[in-house]
Amino acid sequence: MVLGLAKGWSVVGYTLALLIIMPLIALIAQSLLPDEAVFGHLFNTVLPTYISNSLWLMLWVVIGSLIIAVPAAWLVAKCHFPGRRIFQWALLLPLAMPAYVVAYVYTDLLDYAGPVQRSLRAAFGWQTPQDYYFPEVRTLGGAAIMLALVLFPYIYLLARTAFMEQSASLSQATRVMGCGPWKSFWRLSLPMARPALAVGGALVAMETAADFATVSYFAVPTLTTAVYDTWFEYGSLTAAAKLSTIMLLVIFAMVGFERFARRKQKLFQKLSSPGELDIYSLSGAKAFAATAYCAGLLFLAFLLPFIILLQYAYGYFAESWNEEFFEYSFNSLWISLLASAICVVIGIVLMFIRRISPRQADALPSRLASTGYALPGTVLAIGILVPFTQLDFAINDLAEYLGFEGPGLILTGSSFIIVCAFTIRFAAIAIGSIENSYKRISPSLDMAGITMGLKPLGLLRLVHIPLLRKGIFAGLLLVFIECMKELPAALLLRPIGFENLATYVYQFVSDEQLEHGALAAIVIVLVGLIPLIYLNRSLEHDN
């Protein structure tokens, strides 16, 4: 009976999934076209450097994030020390800070003319750069540190959850065997948290591969910057598509390697309830060290950049509070709201189809639609440009054939293309949020609704949507914030004269004038704090 209801919806689901993966298909097709002039030149000169830098950057960012996040996660999950309850949620705050803003702040602090080196020269009497050594910030290693400071909460959140869910009886068994906190962490907690750490590391690596602004500001050539430069400097869509395909292969190979490495790993344990958590009480020097570590991490990754942004915004408020600020804020607002609303509708439809149909084939559209999140913004932009450009040309050719004047670039020359890019990239977030809410709805409610004569739309409207409100709101909120922060896709696809807050701030960062864009950057950060607060409250409620 439920299967019969789903048959009419399958076409809708596959159509939505096809539209979402169309840029990926178009990108692969475009990359197969010959382009010896541009891509051949890149292949013989700088492509190995692009690939090498990308791989090294991902490796160092993942390692750095693990080194930063794992101790903090274990401390707040397994130890009691002053400030622990604050650090549990506060260590998520760096996710709201754009990496390129952090990069600019630390470059301004640490370069030769910055306050740190000026103070050192004044204190020791140094006169020239030859008198002392100070590490260069704008390097691949510097970019890795900046990205690790922003991305480590991905690993921290997953690791903290994994540590908290580990059985208290196992931890107590290690105590009986004479293991102290350090041995218990190294021999028990860390190995059991490996799946969570692997997933977090994969997320960090994908975010690193997708980063454009930080590596561009630090002048570190990677595949992401290569796609951007190839399109804007050489004007070759085919060469850009080839580079994008290489980047996708790197990402998929990395994720596949991670899954292959733990293919035989199995983990069985009794999950702890909150009251059963085995907490180590730290005192004296150990408690001070734990508090100092978490406080220092929070200060370096969030508080210091945010305080400097506030100083910039206060000092340049008169210049920043202008019509451009309001115009670009409105652009960010309406594009993000529209894209998030579309993503939520797509998530509801695809998950409803999966819900009412037991056929395995009807679960495929939601999985296909979730692949867009794996595409970096630059790659997605090139994938969208390929079919949209051809469609624009086809519309103009048809108009001229019918004797009308061509309408011009009505798709690629409008903000509509940015909405499409955001929808494709972040639909997976809405799908995941709604899927999580669907798991809490008993299937017996569906059968009761069908027994009472409800049609599919009635079942969705009267039964499911009221019960999905939290998941819908969470998905809407998370997609909205991601759209507000997304830079590479907006930078590549924006029509002439169009700016949003992300591109507006990036222009000032590129011109070494973040002071004038600090107010806009603060808006992005403050808006980004909303889902983090919501996420923390949800975790506290679940625990």
UniProtKB/TrEMBL annotation:
Membrane topology category: Multi-pass membrane protein
Transmembrane segments: 12-33, 53-77, 89-107, 140-159, 196-219, 239-257, 287-313, 333-353, 373-389, 409-431, 471-496, 516-535
Top-level lineage group: Bacteria
Domain ABC transmembrane type-1 residue range list: 51-255, 329-535
SUPFAM superfamilies: MetI-like (SSF161098)
Cross-referenced Pfam families: BPD_transp_1
UniProt similarity note: Belongs to the binding-protein-dependent transport system permease family.
Protein's UniProt name: Iron ABC transporter permease
Organism: Shewanella schlegeliana
